[in-house]
Design a protein that fits this description.
The protein has helices at 15-30, 33-42, 47-50, 61-67, 71-79, 94-101, 104-117. The protein is an all-alpha fold. It has one domain (15-117): Serine Threonine Protein Phosphatase 5, Tetratricopeptide repeat. Helix 1 (15-30) packs antiparallel against helix 2, helix 4 runs antiparallel to helix 5 and helix 6 packs antiparallel against helix 7 (104-117).
């Protein structure tokens, strides 16, 4: 498995984020929208915090939410600056995970957000 570089835009050693990013990942994966909102507010809706990547898998909170069909969390993260163009170590994006899961609602939200942002990160 390919390891992520520490110089990556959203992987690093910012100590104030490290202990809370796991909380964000868990909340996104479990669909705990209130916890995701609380953590986002705690860090000033920082795109750097919302786009943190797991140091091993490279997954973001958005990817974890899309992979578990957590549509409300996907919507919140997209509208608060989650980067839909990030790929994990397997070269999958959040839209890929929504497609694999056959989650039409999350896929549509990500697609609309991509179109609004002008990005081209659509699934293969």
């Amino acid at each position: 498995m390919m390891a992520l570089k520490e110089t990556s835009k959203y992987v690093g050693s910012n100590k104030s984020y490290n202990y809370k990013e796991q909380d964000l990942f868990k909340a996104a994966e479990n669909g705990d929208l209130e916890k995701v909102k609380q953590l986002a507010a705690q860090f000033g809706y920082s795109e750097i915090f919302l786009n943190r990547r797991d140091a091993v898998t490279g997954k973001t909170a958005l990817m974890l939410a899309a992979a578990r069909s957590r549509t409300e969390v996907v919507s919140f993260l997209c509208t608060h600056g989650a980067d839909t163009d990030i790929h994990d170590v397997g070269n999958f994006s959040a839209s890929d995970y929504a497609r694999i899961r056959k989650d039409k609602r999350s896929f549509a939200i990500i697609k609309l957000y991509n179109e609004w942002q002008g990005t081209k990160c659509l699934p293969r």
